[in-house]
Amino acid sequence: MNVAGGVLPAAAGVALVVFAVRLAREPRRLGNAVWLGVALLLTALWLLRAALHLQWLTPVLVGLLGGAAVLVALVLPAALIANGVRMWRREGRSAGNLLSLGLGAGLVALEALFFVPLGRWGSALVAIAAVLACYFGFLFLSLLIYSVVYGRLGRRSGFDAIIVLGCGLDGERVPPLLAGRLDRAIRLAAREQTPPLLVVSGGRGPGEAVSEAEAMDAYLRDRGVPADRIRREDQAATTEENLRFSAGLLPAEARRVVAVTSNYHVFRTAVECRRLGLPFHATGAPTARYFLPSALLREFAALILYYRRTTIAACVVIIGAGVALTIFA
Description:
- By secondary structure, the chain is an alpha/beta fold.
- The protein has helices at about 1-25, 30-50, 60-90, 100-115, 120-155, 175-190, 210-220, 240-245, 265-275, 290-305, 310-329, and strands at about 160-165, 195-200, 230-235, 255-260, 280-285.
- It is built from eleven helices and five strands, in the order αααααβαβαβαβαβαα.
- Strands 3-2-1-4-5 form a five-stranded parallel β-sheet.
- Helix 6 links the parallel strand 1 (about 160-165) and strand 2 (about 195-200).
- Helix 5 (about 120-155) runs antiparallel to helix 11 (about 310-329).
- The radius of gyration is 23 Å and the shape is globular.
């Protein structure tokens, strides 16, 4: 028992050391989030195991675990569905805006299947789906926690240039989401003794009267930013193009560069910078709370697609193990 009791803290310590080393070397790596998640999970298991030896604490643990189960099984799906309906009404019926609604409905359906007699293979498929849901839930929580960590690590001043990523217009008007990014860039620039160059990036999309860069340029100038401190990049249609095209507009002496986006988009922007070989970091502007669930799910899906080979391999292992257990059980 003592040996088993020492395995969890040792494993948690190893995971934490690996995370710390990777973080010091390159904070813009997706694997950092996984190692942090593993370290936190092992630590939680260790503390739970230790607490189970305290009899007076057992009722408290049972209550906490029961409450967590209710939260995941009932409250989370209901909250996701409610958020999805709100996104549908306020932001439109695009696939991205319906992610939280779809996920909430999927969780309800999966939970309902546990109470339906499906036979041996049907029950096995439901169990495999539940394990896959836990796997992706672990990844999502790890990324969410690490995104907060990453957002607190970056420098706050000393920038030679600031890139502001576009995110769509309302005709010619800068909407609140984009205004938040521009206001964040203005605040960052105001901290510098030598005013940094501001690169506004975004092309003209469907339903937009002007390019995002043009509207962003006008927004900044209306708020006192000199025109000679602004450069437009008006061709980009994706985050990758935002960063790559904007990098081509920077002067050679601009070595300390930050990309400004919304807070939910910060870590994916940082990962994209690393993937493109750009020495930029990212910082975020606040986002309306109702918008966050669907936005975070979109970011998670995009990051998973970046590493689709690893994701597919993990899913194959989980499904294969479930099928093997069903056959040989």
